[in-house]
Amino acid sequence: MKDGEYGIKELDLKIEYMNSGDRRFTYLAEGEVTVNGEKKSDILSTGQNLAPGQKYTDDSAGALAYDVAKSAKSGDRIECKLIKVSRNAY
Question: Which residues contact 51 (CB under 8 A, 6 or more apart)?
Answer without folding.
Answer: 19, 24
